[in-house]
Design brief:
- This protein is of the alpha/beta class.
- The chain folds into 2 domains: 156 residues, Rossmann fold (3-Layer(aba) Sandwich); 73 residues, Helicase, Ruva Protein, domain 3, CATH 1.10.8.
- It contains 11 helices and 7 strands.
- It has a 5-stranded parallel beta sheet with strand order 2-3-4-1-5, sandwiched between helices. It has a two-stranded parallel ribbon with strand order 6-7.
- Strand 3, helix 5 and strand 4 form a beta-alpha-beta unit.
- Helix 1 crosses helix 2.
- The longest helix has 18 residues.
Length: 243
């Protein structure tokens, strides 16, 4: 299977969010949110954009704090490390306030930190944004809008909130047409992959790889659902067996 990045519908939606934070709103707000179910390509889209641009990509974990966030932004900006959180914040704001350093900051997994720490991190984002007018894209799972609802003063500053969608049969066909090397996928096979994967990107990629290998081994120029259904059942049985 070809190792190629597909500019799928959710990645294109992410680029629209990028444009929304690049252009200041009438109130000067430049914060956006992206959320969605697992496997809709949120992290992959953000990481790909960060690689292709000068954006800063940061991923939270359950112990993330406001000081941790400042440290991560400082590292990305190649700033000295300060023991004082206040001095660190001042240095970051001063650096981001200059046009050449006013980079988009993407913070992924925003709903993972513990409850109190999560809101401290969000408040730190608001403080940096207000002081430096820096563009931020905050990312989380399907419940992220509920998290934001507890921080109304941050929610008011959102210039865009975009939900990523799971992938359809047509999306699977698009992936197959670009990525498969040894076969073509018929619509029935795409529908089968969509059902087994629940429309989630990582699983779609796994099933497409299985299809490509199966077609190469059996010299099949095209695959329909009947060709691969038994193979998929075997894969699912193994997955259930291993938990």
């Amino acid at each position: 299977m070809r190792r190629e990045f597909v500019r799928h519908k959710n990645y294109l939606a992410f680029l629209e969010v990028v444009e929304s934070v690049r252009e200041r709103s009438a109130h000067g707000d430049r914060i956006a949110a992206v959320y969605g179910e697992p496997g809709t390509g949120k992290t992959l889209s953000a990481q790909r954009f960060a690689v292709d641009s000068d954006a800063i990509y940061i991923s939270c974990h359950n112990l993330s704090t406001s000081r941790w966030l400042l440290t991560e932004i400082g590292k990305a900006l190649k700033l000295p490390r300060y023991h004082s959180t206040h001095l660190m914040l001042e240095e970051i704001v001063g650096t981001l306030s200059t046009a050449e350093n006013n980079r988009i900051i993407i913070i992924d997994e925003m709903d993972i930190p513990k409850r109190g720490q999560k809101y401290d991190v969000l408040e730190t984002v608001r403080g940096i944004h207000d002081a430096a007018k820096s563009p931020f894209i905050l990312m989380g799972m399907h419940n992220f809008p509920r998290v934001l609802s507890y921080v109304p003063h941050l929610l008011d500053r959102m210039c865009s909130i975009r939900q990523f969608q799971t992938f359809t049969d047509s999306d699977v066909m698009e992936f197959a047409n670009i990525l498969l090397e040894h076969t073509q996928l018929e619509r029935s096979a795409a529908s089968l992959i969509q059902r087994h994967s629940l429309g989630r990107l990582r699983k779609i990629m796994k099933y497409l790889l299985i299809c490509d290998r199966f077609a190469r081994r059996n010299k099949l120029p095209a695959l329909k659902a009947d060709d691969i259904e038994e193979t998929f059942r075997t894969v699912l049985t193994k997955e259930r067996k291993h938990g």
